[in-house]
Structure prediction request, 303 residues.
Amino acid sequence: MNKHGILIKEGDILNNKYKVLSHIASGGMSEVYLIEEINNPAKKWAAKIANMSSKLAPKLVDETKILSELDHPNLPHVADFFSSDDYFFLVLEYIDGVTLSEYFEQNNYELPTDMVLQIGLQLCDLLHYLHNREPYPIIYRDVKPGNIMIMNDRTIKLIDFGIARKFQENRMKDTVQIGTVGFAAPEQFEKKQTDTRTDLFSLGALLYYLLSEGKYVYVAQKPIRHFQKKLSKSLENSIDQLVQLEPENRLQNAVEAKELLLKAREEYKINDIRNWNWSDIRYISTISVSAIVVGYVILSFIF
Prediction:
């Protein structure tokens, strides 16, 4: 449903270059359409379109500026941007996948721990990339299931940089207090400046949400082990340290978070080996040896 008053329909031609195929979704500040290149119909893109009369249009311009400077496998590629008298257009890589929120719901709010770890590790790599940009780190400020696309191979793409900002150390506070309740860090709603640790809180809140069958850390007010008794110690520690209310008490960078998540993954591998049914393995081994002996006897008889 178009909620931003954008009068774009199937078959419309954009900038004499793109043909509109269908409406995909409505975002917080724009409508998203599937488009194709007129001269190369095999080339499909996603077009985010904002109404120029809207107060939110500058946010799409800001998103364009930030994304056009970035190049990372977990981010959508910017193909084009242009404007008309009525609209601003951002043309992005079309991502053939579903949002993590949709995927989570489709799977009855339960995901395998190894998949949650895989998502967390990819986010750590991406946040490290964003937080170490020069001359200004980029603070994403909106890590949540609805902004993460899941591909068939379980790789992710982080979408919607509408409230991302460049961090400047001399600022005392953000211009606007903004974020998604349930995943945003406390400082996003206070008269403070957000920094790289803000995204780390949201990472922890996301992992908490995925491992607790959809509970929000703010609401639950319980450690993650209350919902997951069999968590590895490293995974439990990483989440508990990420969701500390005071930034100075959290893990301080994405590398620290990644180290704990990698350790957790190794702990799960060790536990999997310990839980193997070794009697079955011995049984299989006995059969294999017997087969070799029988084969040797048959060959000896033939030759």
Summary: The mean pLDDT is 87. The helical segments are 57-67, 100-106, 113-131, 196-211, 217-220, 233-242, 254-274, 278-302. The chain has eight helices and eleven strands. The radius of gyration is 24 Å.
